[in-house]
Amino acid sequence: MNDDPLVSTLSVTAAPCLAVLGTGSDVGKSVLVAGLCRFFANRGIRVAPFKAQNMSNNSGVTPEGLEMGRAQIVQAEAARIAPHVDMNPVLLKPTSEVGAQVVVLGEARKNATAQGYHAMKDGLFQTAAQALDRLRGQFDLIILEGAGSCAEVNLMASDIVNFRMAAYADAPVILVGDIHRGGIFAQLVGTLACIGEAEQRRVAGCIVNRFRGDVALFSDGIRWIETRTGKPVFGVVPWFSHFAIEAEDSVVIEQPRTTGPSPNGRKCIAVIRLPHISNFTDFDPLRNLPEIEVHYLEKCVDLTGYQAVILPGSKNTRSDLAWLQQTGWAKRVIDYALSGGPVMGICGGYQMLGKRVSDPEGLEGRPGDSEGLGLLPVQTVLEAPKTTTRTEFAWDGAKGFGYEIHMGRTDIAAGQPPFLSVYSRNGIPCRDTDGCLASSGRIMGTYMHGFFDLPDVTAKWLAWIGLPELAANAIHGPAGRDRAYDLLAEHLTAHLDMEAVCRLVRRP
């Protein structure tokens, strides 16, 4: 029995909601929601995350084999519950500057332009509201996350994720600003000035996120914000570096390196930063190894000196393949492979390593064929429906657990052995295979996202690239993430007025 006084005040019919909205994109909303989920879960409260509409190519798969935003999967992990598409009922996966694939309740519905999506919004709001209602009937507390800036005045009338959803849920709002990017006073005051009186009343207080330095020196700033806005500041969250949380948006891919391997003697892995890169968090387990640097590279550099090169997933394989060829990256990668360097492709990157990628139905754009890099004896045909599975696999005895999200089928040349053994998809036992390992043994491709999540597979891959002396940390992948959620909750507890936050969701 849970004796926490907060639990006794929560509704037994429709769970209360708390909304975390931001002054802009990448101010730390997703991470704060994850931290709040773990904080409340540690108090024995059945808490769930919710984001009505997410825009990201970083997605994952639920136990039911449905697709949702990776950030909400992380938040569900933090809440110690299984992810469900009701937590992210609408997912937009950009395929171009003006178009995106629309995923509704875990299934790809259509590709839409920005104007086409705008016409769908009323119906999608109803879908999202119904998903939230279902969650409120199953959990004690729901933490809503906003999207981008909650004060985009030209979009607020058709907004389905920020104040409109907070109002539907009757949720108090915590407004988050990022002091690291500068202009924190303008962020908070300006946001409140841009929204209407009803929305201003809904804002219960603010959080100043990502502070560097001595927090005590910002006390005058807190008083100024509270005096100017009439809203309490629930706390100032310092920058953290003693643990890592998967991010929905990441500076490491938005500001890629422009030089080659570091001269500090550390081993470096190159990940080609494709224009439509997806699931960049696949490489977080490698980034968290102290002996390894993972470099996201956009502009062509000499690959000599890198221990391995990885082509990541892509939301538009043929477009990114053309980019590789136009920028000179294709020749760089091929030369690196021919010199004996280990090359790996994951999902779209796997498709690009083959001989040809065909899109006869125009699923990613104009129908046609594209010549691949020719480093693996495989050919790919893009076709519906989309494959979305949680998959158990093995690589020569090293067991792994990942997920597949891809359109199409990749066929291996006759006589060529596959790379991985697959023994379960979406909880259903099977005897299948995945991927391809070149006859040289130095080039591999797989559809498996989350490939590096388990330490045995990571250790085997490190040996494959010539680093057998390195071992994956015991706290690695899911175990490492779980420990990080506890550290995040401790971090928030130390720097936020969590009692004031709890009062926001208590019922009279």
Protein model, in words:
- This protein has two domains: 18-244 and 482-505, P-loop containing nucleotide triphosphate hydrolases (Rossmann fold), CATH 3.40.50.300; 252-473, Class I glutamine amidotransferase (GATase) domain (Rossmann fold).
- Helices cover 31% and strands 30% of the residues.
- The chain contains 16 helices and 25 strands.
- Strands 13, 15, 16, 18, 19, 20, 21, 22, 23, 24 and 25 form an eleven-stranded mixed beta sheet that branches. Strands 2-9-1-10-11-12 form a six-stranded parallel beta sheet, with helices on both faces. The chain has a four-stranded mixed beta sheet with strand order 3-6-7-8, with helices on one face.
- Helix 2 (29-42) packs parallel to helix 3, helix 2 packs across helix 15 (477-495) and helix 6 packs parallel to helix 8.
- It is globular, with a radius of gyration of 23 Å.
- The two termini are 22 Å apart.
Based on CA atoms alone, the radius of gyration comes out at 23 Å
Could you give me the name of the CATH homologous superfamily of the largest domain? P-loop containing nucleotide triphosphate hydrolases
Chain-averaged pLDDT: 90
Per DSSP, the total helix count is 16
CATH topology-level name of the largest domain? Rossmann fold
Helix fraction bin: 25-40%
Structural class estimated from helices and strands: alpha/beta
At CATH's second level, what is the architecture of the largest domain?
A: 3-Layer(aba) Sandwich
Family: Belongs to the CobB/CobQ family. CobQ subfamily.
GO biological process, one term: cobalamin biosynthetic process
Pathway: Cofactor biosynthesis; adenosylcobalamin biosynthesis
GO molecular function: ABC-type vitamin B12 transporter activity; catalytic activity
